[in-house]
Amino acid sequence: MTRKMFGTDGVRGLANAEPITAMTALRLALAAGAHFTRGGHRHRVIIGKDTRLSGYMLETALTSGFLSMGMDVMLLGPLPTPAVAMLTRSMRADLGVMISASHNPYEDNGIKLFGPDGFKLSDEIEIEIEERMQGTGFEPAQGLAPSPQLGRAKRIDDAQGRYIEFVKSSFPKGLSLEGLRVVIDCANGAAYKVAPTVLWELGADVIAIANEPNGTNINAGCGAVHTERLREQVKQSGAHLGIALDGDADRVIVVDEKGTVIDGDQLMALIAESWQSAGRLSGDGIAATVMSNLGLERHLALLGLKLHRTAVGDRYVVEAMRRLGLNIGGEQSGHIILSDFATTGDGLIAALQILAVLIRADRPASEAARVFAPLPQLLKNVRYQPGQVPPLDQVLVKQAIAAGEAALNGSGRLLIRKSGTEPLIRVMAEGEDKVLIARVVDDIVGAVEAVAR
After folding, report:
1. Helices (H), 169-291
2. 373-413: per-residue pLDDT in tens?
3. For the residues of 91-149, what is the DSSP string, one character each?
4. What would the pLDDT profile of 58-72 be if each residue is shown by its tens digit?
5. Fewer Cβ in 10 A, N or C end of the chain?
6. pTM, full prediction
7. Which member of 68, 102, 170, 274 is catalytic?
8. 102 among known catalytic residues
């Protein structure tokens, strides 16, 4: 069976429309519960969420399903995705659940699942859960716990404190953020309380923005995808650094003291170079997706390191890291996985490592974090209507892609793919000739738009 419900980062879609409905969430909990309640011990599941209005609906539905399978449910409330991963391991849960659609607008929501080791579930387990939900043999009442063995639910009051101390412990001993002014954009999301607290307790002068969620303002003109407000605040306040998280705080984008954005490729290069010098870099390089700039690959080669490319999605980066024995990986979009500390992308932990490098270098971010010269790269997204003939299967689009590849003629890279989290076609080109790259992307985008109307 192939995936129908799970994408590259769990289940995601418009809230209160399939598959993000209370009924489907309930069935998902029943199916996941059936998979993870093997053995005689008392089973437990952790549920965290971001600040979306629909989180209440999904949290309640998931809780009901797990309780009916005899699993005890521990509710964390709003906390970052990496906090759920960490607490799943720390609290010896059988399963961790994060309710979030990451950087998407509030109208969307999603469900991410973590195994007892704190890692996202493998494709095979997700497919098995889908089979339980969609197969003719799965009935809602199948495997329900006897009445005396129903699960219990409770709130974990100290979850935020546990995560705050965990993140602070990743910051190098002997260093302090004293004397640094940092602007933190919380995206009105899951880290709106913990992120400013971590930075302040480590000594920084903290200016927090987008830290007043109301259920509908998550990622709205703020966060890792919309850095305009952060950039302006950094310049106005004379801050040394700006940090933008996304809605569930598993990714980070940094803004230097001049208000210029530093993407995930530069951040990975900065950490890798620092860790290599300190003798703490594991393996022969780092893992990153096919979206990462060729400039990163060339810079790593100068350091004697390899860039191991993966499919798009931080889960595939993590799989490559585990397979190859690497401790740094990530995505250009700001998912940075530092496996010495975390099992998934953690925006706060990555930000602290960047700050540590800057403190030790005693140089402004505009200098220290410009590690390599990126090749011209252009990415454009085209939205299409779900249910129509996939744009990439249309003859007009195939012809435009073939023409683009011919125009590049080996002088650049062309990557066209369907998003795994939104109804978008992503068109990316990279090469030495900026004008040619723009023309190739525009031609393909035009073709996709023509068939997507």
Report:
1. 194-201, 228-237, 264-278
2. 999 999 999 998 877 778 888 999 999 999 999 999 888 88
3. TT-SEEEEE--TTS-TTEEEEEEE-TTSSBPPHHHHHHHHHHHHSTT--TTTTPPPGGG
4. 999 999 999 999 999
5. C
6. 0.89
7. 102
8. yes
